[in-house]
Amino acid sequence: MGDRLTRDFYRQDVLRVAPGLLGQYLVRVWPDGRQGRYVITETEAYRGEEDRACHACRGKTRRTEVMYGDGGKLYMYFIYGMYWMMNVVAAQEGVPQAVLIRGLREAGGPGKLTRLLEVDRAFYGEDLVTSDRIWVEESVHPPEFTTGPRIGIQYAGQPWIDMPWRFLMR
């Protein structure tokens, strides 16, 4: 097992954290003691109030409050009336950035992975640095990756639609 990622890792700019999460192990411990370790294969970066695709583009709200806190916490939100999305808060306190975890080796798609992990609103604000039920461990070798535009953000307009802020492990 690798070491947990530290607060300093999460306090970096989201454009470093998002690709830095690729190849790392997302560890989930269930109440019955079962443990799963999953390789993160795809992420997307959302870079604060200036990013029209980021939920923080409208400023701080009850929904986005955790994004304005210290890096390393989970930002959870519900979409389409059926899927929880799991995001890792990046950057320093007051800078609302987050990384959507889009894929694991074991589950392609952000809705499928939250179902696999059985995470929901109860994980909003969970601290990946100190939690005993979910965290990220570093892998030995950083993987090669490609970039591309983010998915499903047509509402944001240009240039945000074409920003190459989706990161995929090769």
Describe this structure in words.
The protein is built from 3 helices and 9 strands; from the N terminus they run ααββββββαβββ. With 170 residues, the protein is mainly β. Strands 1, 2, 3, 4, 5, 6, 7, 8 and 9 form a 9-stranded antiparallel β-sheet that branches. A hairpin with a 3-residue loop joins β3 and β4 (83-90). It is globular. 39% of the residues are buried.
Summarize the structure.
The chain is built from 3 helices and 9 strands, in the order H-H-E-E-E-E-E-E-H-E-E-E. With 170 residues, the chain is mainly beta. Strands 1, 2, 3, 4, 5, 6, 7, 8 and 9 form a 9-stranded antiparallel sheet that branches.
What secondary-structure arrangement, pairings included, does this model have?
Layout: H1 7-10, H2 14-20, E1 25-29, E2 35-47, E3 74-79, E4 83-90, E5 97-104, E6 107-108, H3 110-117, E7 134-137, E8 145-148, E9 166-169
